[in-house]
Design a protein that fits this description.
With about 240 residues, the chain is α/β, with parallel strands linked by helices. It has eleven helices and five strands. Helix content is about 45%, strand content about 10%. It has a five-stranded parallel sheet with strand order 2-3-1-4-5.
């Protein structure tokens, strides 16, 4: 038995925030969810008995090899890969939990021994598995609504309304006024301890603004990112050609 809908995202693409919104909505509707992390433990959807009882499947670090087996409607969120690297650098340096992630323990030790300049280069390598999962995703499936994190944070109510319309959860079941209250309770300000987007702090919700890579990438980082990940930027529409700067 398939779940009724699925949510897919990748590391540092707002999955903690989106998951909180979805769980609040599902709680209102009295529906269960099942979370899967394809990077740490990779059970194939449909194998676990729990999935038969879950209305929604929430997939973090989503991998198309597994997600392709899920036939229900869903939505998929990506983020500018350059911001993924910058967000990952600061998170992996200080705030991201190391539980069940020994690879992060050693990466954190490396970052703390390096300059920021060298650390961002190391982060590009460390993030390769997450960025490759984003690159290998099939963006052509009509059952999955494709969204960008930047659009979600620019107009959460409009974007989440389009998500629930796509998932056939209409306003009768989820009044938009209720959705607006859930989004307000899950806003960057609420989750970051009162800061506005753009106010930076050493926190899991560090800055909350798109385009932050421009504040941290040097010319060296731009050159490295072009060499490693230009095909990803083109495929996901974050750049039109390879000569960006």
């Amino acid at each position: 038995m398939q779940p009724r809908f699925a949510y897919y995202s990748h590391h540092k693409c707002g999955s903690t925030w989106v998951t909180q919104v979805l769980r609040a909505v599902l709680g209102h509707l009295g529906l269960a969810s099942l979370g899967q992390n394809h990077d740490l433990r990779m059970p194939k959807p449909g194998v676990l008995e729990e999935i038969d009882r879950a209305y929604a499947l929430l997939c973090w670090n989503a991998d198309w090899l597994y997600a392709r087996l899920v036939e229900c409607p869903g939505f998929h969120v990506i983020r500018d890969p350059r911001d993924v690297v910058v967000s990952g650098y600061f998170s992996h340096l200080d705030t991201h939990p190391e539980d069940n992630w020994p690879r992060l323990h050693y990466h954190r030790k490396l970052l703390r021994d390096q300059s920021k300049e060298d650390g961002l280069e190391s982060e590009m390598s460390f993030s390769s598995r997450f960025l490759y999962a984003m690159y290998s995703w099939d963006y052509t499936q009509p059952r999955n609504l494709e969204l960008k994190f930047e659009d979600l944070i620019a107009d959460p109510l409009a974007c989440f309304s389009s998500v629930f319309d796509h998932l056939d959860i209409g306003e009768a079941a989820l009044p938009r006024a209720l959705l607006a209250r859930i989004l307000s309770a899950s806003s960057f300000k609420a989750l970051s301890g009162g800061r506005q987007p753009g106010e930076e702090a050493n926190h899991h919700y560090r800055r909350g603004m798109p385009g932050d890579w421009r504040n941290h990438f040097s010319a060296r980082h731009v050159d490295s990112f072009k060499r490693l990940y230009n095909p990803l930027l083109i495929k996901t529409g974050y750049e039109r050609d390879e000569d960006w700067h």
